[in-house]
Here is the input.
Amino acid sequence: MTALSVLDLVMIGEGKDLATAINESRELAVTVEQHGFRRYWIAEHHDMPGIGSAATSLIIAQLAAATNTIRVGSGGIMLPNHAPLVVAEQFGSLDALYPGRIDLGVGRAPGSGGATVRALRGLTPERDFNQDVVEVMDYLADNHRRPVRAVPEPHDVPVWILGSSLHGADLAAKLGLPYAFASHFAPRFLMQAIAHYRNNFKPSAQLAEPYVMAGVNLFLGDTNEEAEYLASSHQRWMLDLHMGRPGLLQPPVENYIASLPSHERQVLNQVMAFTAAGDKQKVGTWLREVIASTGFDELIIDSRIYDPLARQRSHILAAEVMRDIAEAS
Here is the structure.
């Protein structure tokens, strides 16, 4: 059975605040744990209206404390923004509190724009991402390859490489790490990247065989019309971001895509090409085709639905669809 997980940017809806957004994420984590989801990841972003996941490790701690079995982690920590020592200290501490449940997904994008990057990094030169990944792994392993220690004992925190191009795929293959592709917003090089990763994978102490996770945007309701209505909040936020007008997550509207001018509809279709919105039958058909054609080991859902109860129900329906697919195979 292809595993199912959640990617969360802790979206702040119009008329809501950060505390509300974090509480809604906590409630969703509890819900998806009850329905068999494998992991719940928080994505680091900074200075972006509507996104409340900047203090990523703090939110991970809140979600881990509210749940019991689901893996919780980062999707991802933007490693160039941090000293590897600090990342290892934070995630080693999380593993000490919630052993066997913490993931560390890392990416090399800044997670924001130029002024914010300067505020995060100061005037320090750009770091070598590949070297930083190895350094974090050394600190977590407490293998004495570094002149200082991040944690007082080894911590078995799986490290994942996140990416949307061949760079991340190549690094994950060389280091023998699991690979997560950001197809939920940048699907262009998906098939090329995962083919490169699988063909060049070298087994490691962490992973014997290649393991691919892909991001998808899923919106489910009792009818196709309901699901398309719920999806409009996510679609509007993504389009506004790419058109230079970022903001809070808006309530859904009817017939959103049909109301757009053709050039905006084209932008949205490119950005959200890896998306399904509909009832269980429609989304199930789409997922069967995706899984059969790609062999993904795991799918991670990005679903920015304004109403928290509708968002929970969409994820519950997704879990039911995946169980149906597994039983039929």
